[in-house]
Amino acid sequence: MSNFISRIIGFFTGEGFKRYLKTLKYSLYMILHPFDGSWDLIHEGRGSMAAAHTIVILALLTRLWDMRFANFMVNNTRWSEVNIIKELASVLVPLFIWVLANWCLTTLMDGKGRFKDIYMATAYSFTPYVLIGIPMIFVSNVVTLEEGVFYTYFNIFSLIWCVFLILCAMMMIHDYGLLKGLGSSILSVAGMAIIIFVVLLFFSLISDAVAYFISLYKEITLRAS
What is the pLDDT of residues 34-57, one digit of tens each? Predict the structure, then answer.
């Protein structure tokens, strides 16, 4: 038991944990210096996958906390009807598809970013949503109905900020100019739609095939009896 405790203490006091905190803190620099920050995040090794995972988890928690604790005047969600798995998937699945689509497309467009680089930069870009979203949950419970509009404005602003950071990050990690970076991002969104269509079509065909063989089996069983 004492050995286990010493290992935990060693982890939180070791160089690995200090680097993790440093890379997590770097997200604050990146959101204020999107171009230099995005470049150094990948090319200078200022970011880490651990910090990226942390920011994504915080973004997921922010979404759930907002649905659970935001004032009813600005939040119409019925918590008792919320499917947590579905809500988590509504963020994680588009995130994965975005990274996949952007990586596939930019590979054909001489992009320099790797799959993990695209994920890390996108995850770091979620920082404004967390920094603005969590305080807004508390603010929503102390403002009047008329003042509740600021809750909506700040949340929209945080999402716009996130999109801007993602665009800047894609330009920097792929070494694109403005037009090529914007164009590749738009095409990546179109690629997301294609991937979703293909996946849905695949599962639809599988479902139809399974249903056909089940009906065929029932027909054979019925005739045999």
Answer: 999 999 998 888 999 999 999 999
List, in sequence order, the alpha helices (H) in 44-148. 49-69, 84-108, 115-124, 127-139
Give the tens place of pLDDT for each residue, 171-199.
Answer: 999 999 989 999 999 999 999 999 999 99
- Phi, psi (deg, nearest 5) at residue 82: -80, 130
> CA 106, CA 124: separation in Å to the nearest integer?
20
114 part of a folded domain? yes
What element of type H or E holds 184? Answer: helix 178-224
Count of domains forming the chain: 1
Across the chain, mean pLDDT equals 88
Domain span at 182: 2-193
Is residue 33 domain-resident? yes
Q: Using alpha carbons only, what angle is made at residue 184 by residues 182 and 189, rounded to the nearest 5 degrees?
A: 95
CA atoms within 13 A on the CB side of 72: 2
Q: Is residue 204 part of a domain?
A: no
The region of weakest confidence among 85-89, 190-194, 210-214 is 210-214
- Cα distances (Å, whole numbers) of residue 128 to 59, 83, 90, 203: 9, 25, 19, 36
**Within a domain: 218:** no
